Structure formats: C-alpha cells, structure tokens
Amino acid sequence: MSNDLLPIGRFARLCRLSVKQLRHYDDLGLLAPAWVDPSSGYRYYRPEQARDALMIGMLRELDVPLPAVARVLAGQGAAALRDARDRLEADVARRRRALRLLDRVLADGLPETVVSVVEEPARRVRVASEAATPASIAAATGACVARLLAAAEGPPSLVGLFPLDMADEFEVRVALESPSGEDVLPGGPFAQALHTGPYEEIALTVHGVLAWFGDRAHAPAGPVREVYLNDPGSTPPERLETRVLIRLEDVR
C-alpha cells in the first residue's frame, strides 16, 4: 500500500461525502478506490481522486442523475450536462403547470363536469407515437401533431390518445382521421365531457369523467381520447375546446 493513500473516512471528509456515498459510487463504477485491503475490504483513495469525488457531489446536489454524472467523468461533460439541464427545465415547466392547476382548484374548487354517454363510430386514422414521461408529455404530443400535420390532407381532425395510468414512462399517441389511414380507432359507447380552457387543465375534466365512472361503478377502458376542436394557433387558450372521451367497457 502506498503511503499517499487516504483511508475512506478521511477521504470522505475531504470530499464532503459520506462513507456510505463513496461505497455506493464504488458499487456503481463511478469512483473506484485506488486500493482495497484484501483482508479487511477497507477502501483507500488517492488525493488526486478528490477532484472527481467533489464533481460527483456537486452534480448530485444539482439533481444531475447518476448516468449523466458517469458521462461527465468519462469526458462527455458538455453533452451530458445539456441533457440534464433539458430534463430539469422540462420538470420545472411541469411543476409550474401543476402549480397553475392547483391555484385554479384552490380558487374555484374542482369543476362540475357534465358527462353524457355517446356512441362513437369507428374511425380510420393515421397514428404517430412518442415515448414520454409526465414531464415531457406536452413536448411528445406536440412532436406527434407536427408529424401528422406535415402529411395532412385537408383540415385536420386530431385525437390525442393517453393511457389511463401514466407511469414513469409511457407512450403518447395522436391520431389523424384519414380515409386512407392504416389504423382504426374502435367505436362504441363512451362517456364524454367538453373541456373548455388550456390543454394543461384537461386533467381536471378527465378527473371529472373518471369520478362519473366511479359514482356509477362502470369500468373505464383506455386510452383517454382528447378530440381537439380548435386550432391552438388562432384560439386563445381560455377558449380552446376539447372533447374528453373514455370508453365504457361494461356497456354495450
């Protein structure tokens, strides 16, 4: 063992990390000790490793995920940090939308949702899909819409398709009604409500429709359909209208 090696406790204090953190980073392959005592398993570090350890600690304080930290240590710093920044920015935008929604609920309470049962015909469509997370759902939906509009024939009729249960990762789909479409949106009985207002507040209307299902012990079937009735480019957000549809699985 070299005399310039530092035991893990002293190295941890030097780098403002805990011994537990250093062990975890070793297990992940982020920061391996310079030497491990084969008889005791005790870890030792070189002083020059402190720079990497401090970098890891700083990036973790900034909520940079560990895979991105590994890329920084591997010399891919600029690209990894840009990706981490984009994720944080998307998360901040999502939280701001949530705050606006919460402010509305605090001011007005949950909206009264008028729900009716309609029979929807089957529709032939073209479908675009994107992987999404709760933080990126708006961007993923926008990307799907852009692809479909580029190939639209005449005035577009767009339907957003979203899972009933949104996990950490899920698929967003948008359908464009088209006689030449290769996919079919199935018809049948649907619970329907009209949402008026910004797209970011549609969750309130979806909640109202699902509450209607619960009150009547009906079984909902996904995906949630959002039929966009206005052009967001020329309609103020507060006047946008969207049909929210959820299929009644146990009604024929």
UniProtKB/TrEMBL annotation:
<dbReference type="InterPro" id="IPR047057">
    <property type="entry name" value="MerR_fam"/>
</dbReference>
<dbReference type="GO" id="GO:0003677">
    <property type="term" value="F:DNA binding"/>
</dbReference>
<protein>
    <submittedName>
        <fullName>MerR family transcriptional regulator</fullName>
    </submittedName>
</protein>
<dbReference type="Pfam" id="PF13411">
    <property type="entry name" value="MerR_1"/>
</dbReference>
<dbReference type="GO" id="GO:0003700">
    <property type="term" value="F:DNA-binding transcription factor activity"/>
</dbReference>
<keyword id="KW-0238">DNA-binding</keyword>
<dbReference type="InterPro" id="IPR009061">
    <property type="entry name" value="DNA-bd_dom_put_sf"/>
</dbReference>
<dbReference type="InterPro" id="IPR011256">
    <property type="entry name" value="Reg_factor_effector_dom_sf"/>
</dbReference>
<dbReference type="InterPro" id="IPR010499">
    <property type="entry name" value="AraC_E-bd"/>
</dbReference>
<dbReference type="Pfam" id="PF06445">
    <property type="entry name" value="GyrI-like"/>
</dbReference>
<dbReference type="InterPro" id="IPR029442">
    <property type="entry name" value="GyrI-like"/>
</dbReference>
<feature type="domain" description="HTH merR-type">
    <location>
        <begin position="5"/>
        <end position="75"/>
    </location>
</feature>
<dbReference type="InterPro" id="IPR000551">
    <property type="entry name" value="MerR-type_HTH_dom"/>
</dbReference>
